[in-house]
Amino acid sequence: MKAPVYNQEGKEVKKIDLPKSIFGLSVNDDLVHQVTVSQMANKRQVNAHTKDRSEVRGGGRKPWRQKGTGRARHGSTRSPIWKGGGVTFGPRNEKIYKKRVPKEMRRKALLMTLSGKLKDNEILFIDSLKIDKSKTSIVSEILNKLPFDKKKALIVFCHPNRNLVLASRNIPEIETIPVKNINPLDLLSFKNLIIAEDAIKVIEETFV
Fold this sequence. Notes:
Helices cover 32% and strands 14% of the residues. It is α/β, with parallel strands linked by helices. The chain has two domains: 2-44 and 97-207, 3-Layer(aba) Sandwich (Ribosomal Protein L4, Chain: A), CATH 3.40.1370.10; 46-96, no CATH class. Strands 2-1-3-6-4-5 form a six-stranded mixed sheet. Strand 1 and strand 2 (12-17) form a beta hairpin. The radius of gyration is 27 Å and the shape is elongated.
C-alpha cells in the first residue's frame, strides 16, 4: 500500500509504503460510533442544576392553619406548586454521563478511522512541517499549495512545533494536534487530515 508524500511547496517528492496494521483495516462502523459517543459523553459538562424542595429557601412554618380559612391546605411554601418552591424532576448536576470503553477498543477504533479516511482520499502526507516564524500567512501559503480540498483540516504533527500551533489557530477550520493525542472524535470532526511523514512511525509504536 503506497501513498504519495508532498513537500511544503505542494510537489510530490516520493511514495511511501503505509503499514497495513494502520491504514489497511476494514472499518467497523458500530465500534467507531461506540467509541466516539463515549468520548462525547466523557467531555460533557453538566452545568444545569435546579433546587428541589429541600434546598430552596423558606417554608419553615405552615403558611396558614389547616382548617377554617376556606383556602386549600398547604404545609410549606417550598412545595413545587408554589412560586419560589422546589422544582420537580428538574436537571441535576449530580448526573454522571461518563462511559468507559476498553483500551483495545479505543485503539482499534482509531486505526479504523485512519483506514477509512485513507480509503476516502481524505489523508495527505507531507514530508516535513517546519515553520520558522509563528505567522499565519506562512501556514496559509503552505495550505494553498497542497493538493487537497480546502475544507476543514486537521494537521497532525510529530515533534513539538509551537510556531505551527500559533500560526494555525487564526485560520478558520484548521487545527493542529500532536500525533500522540489523536483520537477518533477529533479525526472525524475534520474533512481532511494532513499527517507529517514521521508521525506514521509514532502511530505504529503508540497505537498498534
